[in-house]
Amino acid sequence: MTDTERPLAGDLRLLIVDDSPEDAEIHARMLRQAWPGQVTVRAAALGEDGLSLLRADAPDCVLLDYNLPDMTGLEFLAEAGAACAVIFMTGLGDEELVVQALHAGAQDYMIKGRVTPEQLSRDVGRAIEKFRLQRDLSESRRQMAAILSSVDDAVLALSPDCAPLYVNSAAHEQLGLNVGQAMPGWLCLTPLHAAVTTVLCGADRQLVEFSDGERWFDARVHPSPGGVTVVMRDVTRQRLERERLRLLESVTVTARDAVVIAEAEPVTHPGPRVVYVNRAFTEMTGYAPEEILGRTPRILQGPKSDRRALDRIRDNLKRWKSSDETLLNYTRSGTPFWVNLSIVPVADETGWYTHWVSVQRDVTTQVRRTLLDQARRDVLEFTATGRALEDSLDVICHLLSSSLPGHAATVWVRTGDEVHMRAASGDLPEQLRVDYTGSGRTVDLRQQRGVIHRAVQDTRDVIVPDLLAPDVQLYEGMHELLVQHGLRSLWTVPLPASDGSGVLGVLSLVGDRPGAPDPEEAALLREVTELTVTLLERFDAQAQLQRLALYDSLTGLPNRALYLEHLRRGLGDASRAGEQLAVGLLDLNRFKQVNDTLGHSAGDDLLRQVGQRLRAALRPADVLARMGGDEFTLMLPYRDRDRFEAGIARRLREVFREPFTVAGQPVFASGSLGLALAPLHSLEPETLLSQADMAMYEAKRAGRPMGVFNAHAQINPQVVSLEADLHRALPQQELELHYQGIYRASGREPTAAEALLRWRHPVRGLVNPGEFIGLAETNGLIVPIGAWVLREACRQAAAWQAQRPGLSVNVNLSARQFWQPDLPDVVRDALRSSGLSPHLLTLEITESVLLDVPDAAQTLGALHALGVRLSLDDFGTGYSSLSYLHRLPLHGLKIDRSFIRDLGQAQGVAENIIRAVMLLAHTLNLHVTTEGIELETQAGFVEALGGDYLQGYLLARPLPAADFERQVLSPSPLAEQSDSTNSTALH
């Protein structure tokens, strides 16, 4: 049974805390007498004991003596707290003590010795009832304070003199008020003070709005017992929103952007209802106010509107948040246009959101420009990274369909008399992708029908604004096909080549609504046309460059690089298929005689005809390529070796059976074919080519048209030994350079040094270059050896600059080095590592380089770009040398020593040749070096003709670097030189 349910007349529990046992017994007896059998009394003589009993089981009332042995009654009250009713008992009638006890929590007091049973029972009952009422009142106050503290509005209870009797937490936070303090001065100066005064004078509730200079408040003043109650709400935000809406409404009428005001709800289906639109909205969308008011703004959305953007907008509406999106909308007539849409919620004076205000700005032009710029970047990136043409054309189609919503785009590329669909936008119906032309994805221009033919033929746009118009005529089936798919317009735009040479293709757009391009759309089509033309021409140029890189420009056959790619792949395919592969090298016999007698163009014509006959004689699976010069390479799969060799020999005889017509006359030619077999002989491409080369030379020596590599054939042991030693010559530093001076003809002072390769064999001694240079070229060692020669010659020339500033160095290059694509990088590295200025390096090449290496001219151009000087060596020994002088970036040439040797013989022929060569060279601004000068009469003859430079034993023999520095570069007169070493250069 709870305290509130227990009657005062029964079941009472009392605690007497008194150090006098007699007084405690008297009071206990009085209570039992007043409530016989219904009261339980406990007693304690010490305050601590009383507190322990109180805490263990709180009684209904405590009779507390003031004077206790261990504490006073006031101290007991402080320790006990408000646990139950307390009657303070004292032996003296001390009023001050009584007041202290009541303030400390006692409900009543009694004076010992004057208490009757009736009085005691009555006072205990009243004390218990008073305690219960005080406890309930405190609980109610706590609950009320909690409720008021949770209210966002400020709540004040003011006394008649305006002193705060109560403030909730909101009032404390917003106004800084506390109970018991005076009202702030600013509050007394506001209309709130007048409203409080009015209510205190007897008026009913007052409503007032006021500001503290920064914030605005809405206040309600109510009369209450003993004063007034004030409820205040901060309405600053609502006032700002109201003012913002008022300003917004004042500018919407004249705004250039479309403005729409709609009700706040519902934000879900069917959407807010429009209550206002301005004039710009009508001009932008075509909807008059009476056609849109009461309807949802969602009628502006259409099939191409971005669903993700719409979902973001609706999500923000549900959360009463602003939105800013770029969206595709549609006009009343169905024309799509892009808008930048900004939506904000608007609240009333209470803070309740009532409306949405949206501002729409037409950004169609900006979006199209952004899409076009992005397409340009994508096309440029795709082209630079080697992506397929179709990938870039897909970008064009996506650009058109995105910039012109409702239109599907296709790109057609012309090849001769046919135009092929190469790309289409994703929204083009699948059936149209297949049957767009009525005959698949190809238009035959020779049939002279259809809009694509008209666009290509007339190089003009062909626009069909409305496919349903009565005068529309398309080729068979096309009209029905387009209309069947709900299409209403057809725009066809040609792609004219930038040089005016013709039409590269067309852009074709089909639309789901009638109409011709407006001026902005027409301008967009022009820009997209230019971009597409640039793309097609760039891809065509890249295709041509790729063909030049992989195909021989003379015969149209694959070149060495492409042949090796075919060969590597063919070796793998043959191995998997269980086939065998023959690698062939064919060389024309006596081809140089054709060049020398009929001319270089005749030789080129012969090579083209041989290539055509060989290609016609081979099977489709066979590969034919031109290796360079008059050499052709073949890749021939086979299964039966005997049948294969007989068949290829027969086809080879057929190729050369009939004469070729060259320069208007019949020319009989023959070839020598060498074969290496895989996997019998090797599986390495380079090894197979080398073996085929050896088989071909063996066939030539034997006078046979064809030979097969024989791994067991007799090989010169000395050559084998020398080749083995040559492999270790470079790593073991057995190679060295000698230098022969080149002198200015007029003053006979040295201006350059030609680097000549020497091999100091540990057993054979100094090996003649004629014995190992050819061997190095055959086995490919000339490539690393040539790179070392370049580095060492540049290093030495750089070291001599301190002694002889401006002294240059000449280095011979082998034709085999020109086959390496990294030759310019090798030269650049040699210059960089040595620090030698590029103009102090002269590279000497022979005419065989120009004849045997297909891309020699490009390599010479790359070397020229490095800043080095280029000279043609052994000039006059080949038929076509003169034709190179004006086409190649040469700085000079060397007259072959044979002409100097023949001076004074054969009725002055050598003299006339030298004279003619010098005149020609000087006319072309080329300097002339005459080598082989051994006699003073020879030097004098050259100087008399105006020769530029002299080289020969008369002036200096080839010398090691230290001897060259001492004997040639020293200021002393030229010393007699005893080195009779052969001066053959690296070539």
Write the topology of this structure.
Blueprint: E1 12-17, H1 21-34, E2 39-44, H2 47-56, E3 61-65, H3 73-80, E4 85-90, H4 95-104, E5 108-111, H5 117-149, E6 154-158, E7 164-167, H6 169-175, H7 185-188, H8 191-200, E8 206-211, E9 216-224, E10 227-234, H9 236-252, E11 258-263, E12 274-277, H10 279-285, H11 289-292, H12 307-318, E13 323-330, E14 336-347, E15 353-362, H13 364-384, H14 389-403, E16 407-415, E17 418-424, H15 430-435, E18 442-444, H16 451-458, E19 462-464, H17 478-484, E20 489-496, E21 503-511, H18 519-550, H19 560-577, E22 580-588, H20 591-598, H21 600-617, E23 623-628, E24 631-638, H22 641-657, E25 660-662, E26 665-667, E27 671-678, H23 685-702, E28 706-708, H24 717-729, E29 735-744, E30 750-761, E31 765-767, H25 769-779, H26 782-800, E32 808-812, H27 815-818, H28 823-834, E33 841-845, H29 847-852, H30 856-866, E34 869-875, H31 881-885, E35 892-895, H32 897-901, H33 909-923, E36 927-931, H34 936-944, E37 949-951, E38 959-960, H35 961-967
Parallel strand pairs: 1-2, 1-3, 3-4, 4-5, 27-28, 30-32, 32-33, 33-34, 34-35, 35-36, 36-37
Antiparallel strand pairs: 6-7, 6-10, 8-9, 9-10, 11-12, 11-15, 13-14, 14-15, 16-17, 16-21, 17-18, 19-20, 20-21, 22-24, 22-27, 23-24, 25-26, 29-30, 29-37, 29-38, 30-31
